[in-house]
């Protein structure tokens, strides 16, 4: 599915609304465009807490990527964004609200099955929940 976000809309809120309206329960999200202001985050792995960074200037969305899964029976969008300024300097991170659209084109490759999240004690994050057959963790176990 391909769509465009409204000028002034919040990226995360708009994508979640679109997924709820279209009953999308899993998927890969790609987006490009420009923002008038943004909020990005860095996850402090020791504190298990996000540090939010407010970028109060127009930036290009050099690359936006994310995924859709379900959390508390609602679509949940996990997005990361790479932004470039008028000198081409980059910044980026985990996408938070408010991040206001100047113009934004979105593509969602929808999954066939719902994907859900559950709290993970080790990271302090809500990670994808897999059954015993789909335990990706086993790949990384020593
Ligand atoms: Zn993230």
State which percent range the strand residues make up.
Answer: over 45%
Please tell me what the overall shape is. Answer: globular
Provide the structure class. mainly beta
Ligand identities? zinc ion
If you consult CATH, what is the topology?
Answer: 60s Ribosomal Protein L30, Chain: A
Number of H/I helices = 2
Order of helices and strands: EHEEEEEEEH
Q: What are the low-pLDDT stretches, counting only 5+ consecutive residues below 50?
A: 137-142
- Which homologous superfamily in CATH is the superfamily? Hypothetical protein, similar to alpha- acetolactate decarboxylase, domain 2
The main β sheet shows up as:
6 strands, antiparallel
CATH architecture: 2-Layer Sandwich
Provide the residue-averaged pLDDT: 92
Overall number of domains: 1
How would you describe this structure to a colleague?
- The protein is mainly β.
- The chain has a single domain, classed as 2-Layer Sandwich (60s Ribosomal Protein L30, Chain: A).
- Helix content is 11%, strand content 58%.
- It contains two helices and eight strands, in the order βαβββββββα.
- The strands form two sheets. Strands 1, 2, 3, 4, 5 and 6 form a six-stranded antiparallel beta sheet that branches. Strands 7-8 form a two-stranded antiparallel ribbon.
- Strand 5 and strand 6 form a beta hairpin.
- The C terminus is likely disordered.
- The structure holds zinc ion.
- The site of zinc ion (ZN) has 3 residues, from strand 5.
- The site of zinc ion has 3 residues, from strand 5.
């Amino acid at each position: 599915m391909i769509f465009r976000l409204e000028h002034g809309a919040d990226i995360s809120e708009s994508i979640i609304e679109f997924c709820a309206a279209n009953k999308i329960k899993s998927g890969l999200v790609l987006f490009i465009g420009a923002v008038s202001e943004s909020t990005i985050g860095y996850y402090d792995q020791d504190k298990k807490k996000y540090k939010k960074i407010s970028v109060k200037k127009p930036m290009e969305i050099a690359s936006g990527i994310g995924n859709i899964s379900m959390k508390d029976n609602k679509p949940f969008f996990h997005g990361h964004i790479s932004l470039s300024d008028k000198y081409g300097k980059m910044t980026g991170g985990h996408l938070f609200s408010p991040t206001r659209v100047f113009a934004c084109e979105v593509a969602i490759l929808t999954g066939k099955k719902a994907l859900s999240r559950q709290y993970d004690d080790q990271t302090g994050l809500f990670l994808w929940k897999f059954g015993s057959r789909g335990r990706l963790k086993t790949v990384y176990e020593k």
